[in-house]
Amino acid sequence: MHLPIGAVPLELDGPYLGHLDDHTALRDDFPALRERLASDGYLRIRGLHDPAAVQAARQRLLQNLAANEQLDPARPLDEAWIAPGAKGQFLGGAKAVSHTPEFLKVVESPALLAWFANLLEGPALTFDYKWIRAIGHGANTGAHFDVVYMGRGTKRLYTVWTPLGDLTYDLGTLAILAGSPNLDRVRQTYGEMDVDRDNVEGWFSKDPRELVDRYGGRWLTAEFAMGDALVFGMYTMHCSTNNTSQRLRLSCDTRYQRADEPADERWVGANPKAHYAWGQGETVSMATMRERWGV
Ligand SMILES: O=C(O)CCC(=O)C(=O)O
């Protein structure tokens, strides 16, 4: 089986693409989880969320997408078939969907915040801004570190990537570059960037093969079931595989950190300011910056 990432099809179980480890058995063993997060750069936990709560959040999101003519009305709502001509939607910061009781019950649940408090050894908070994605046919996300988008506070900040529904490979799923938290030179250059300050493209690469050839490691991915989640740090290189189906891939990514550490001011508060300068005026290409950094 080949899974495309952008323009590049990668063979699953080939030299460039393998499978994410499953850390579910360690779910409540916090010292072990901390070790694995440091060594692997991610935690894949099946059933981290209550699947019924995720289903309710999915339902609410589907209703919103249907009202926005993203879904084919001739097909069952729950299957999320793409309306003819619809392209999918990025619903980051769209409070009408991100602040419904159903959605908050998943990403701000007391159980999830308590799990993070144990992992981080202190009370945890989550950013008010939520990134919700309805990914259309052919779309994916290029390889990047999250720190370039949200690095103004503590660097001990973690992403929880949550599929809002069962994700088979054809819908597109997340992929992580094994060993990427140890790419010191990339951390010291690209990892110091801030997209609003520097106005540079955010994606480090659109070519997953190039990164493996240059830095080693392998892309790792998996299929996900409702309730599963992937947790990773700010310096874990990740991307997503293409949605090759005719249905929307629904997922969200939300952020967690210790409450007593500084939080990036762009993403907290009743009306987070979000990216306020990125993409305005001339944007510097990543190719230019990579050449300058020598990475
Ligand atoms: O879902 C995607 O395509 C990208 C998600 C992502 O980049 C993230 O969770 O940081």
Explain this structure.
This protein is of the alpha+beta class and 295 residues long. The chain has one domain: Sandwich (Jelly Rolls), CATH 2.60.120.620. It contains ten helices and 13 strands. The strands form three sheets. Strands 4, 5, 6, 7, 8, 11 and 13 form a seven-stranded antiparallel sheet that branches. It has a four-stranded mixed sheet with strand order 3-10-9-12, with no helix packed on it. A two-stranded antiparallel ribbon has the order 1-2. The mean pLDDT is 97. The structure holds 2-oxoglutaric acid (AKG).
Topology:
Layout: E1 2-5, E2 8-11, E3 17-19, H1 30-40, E4 42-45, H2 51-67, E5 88-90, H3 95-98, H4 101-107, H5 110-120, E6 124-126, E7 131-135, H6 147-150, E8 157-163, E9 174-177, H7 184-188, H8 195-198, H9 208-215, E10 219-221, E11 229-233, E12 238-240, E13 249-258, H10 286-293
Parallel strand pairs: 3-10
Antiparallel strand pairs: 1-2, 4-11, 5-7, 6-13, 7-13, 8-11, 8-13, 9-10, 9-12
Helix pairs in contact: 2-4
Estimate what percentage of residues fall within beta strands: 15-25%
Radius of gyration: 18 Å
Ligands, deduplicated: 2-oxoglutaric acid
Q: Largest sheet, described in full?
A: 7 strands, antiparallel
Keywords:
seven-stranded antiparallel β-sheet; Jelly Rolls; alpha+beta; single chain; four-stranded mixed β-sheet; binds 2-oxoglutaric acid
What does this entry show, briefly?
By secondary structure, the protein is of the alpha+beta class.
